[in-house]
Amino acid sequence: MRLGDLKHAPGSRQKKKRLGCGPGSGHGQTAGRGEKGQKARSGVSIPRWFEGGQMPLQRRVPKRGFTNRFKKVYQIVNVKDLNRFPSGAEINLDALLDKGLVKKVDLPLKLLGDGALDQPVKVIVHKCSKKAREIVEKAGGNITLIE
Question: Does some domain include residue 55?
Fold first, then answer.
């Protein structure tokens, strides 16, 4: 067998459908486009969302409110969750990530004052509530804010 003897498997290659080549070809006259209508014309390009002239969905659905593009989204940790750490531990974003209390490193962190704290800890967060600060300082710990 030589390289010149190689052939495609039978049925794997199909001839191109030659459209508009007269009545003898079987694809003459309308060239496989049916009869009349928007899709039968030349130069047709209908977007996927086009609904045949019906009012499009994005215009039918009522619009309400707006989305603030500049809103800061914080990851939230409560004071009661800090009891998982040993006494005197330094709690930052990486430590919370290791314990599975936060999901992402790139989002800022906010400490809220839900629950109680049993031991003193050092907390490093982007923001905290007044109640959370009181609870941590009452337990003997301190909070450092990241700018």
Answer: no
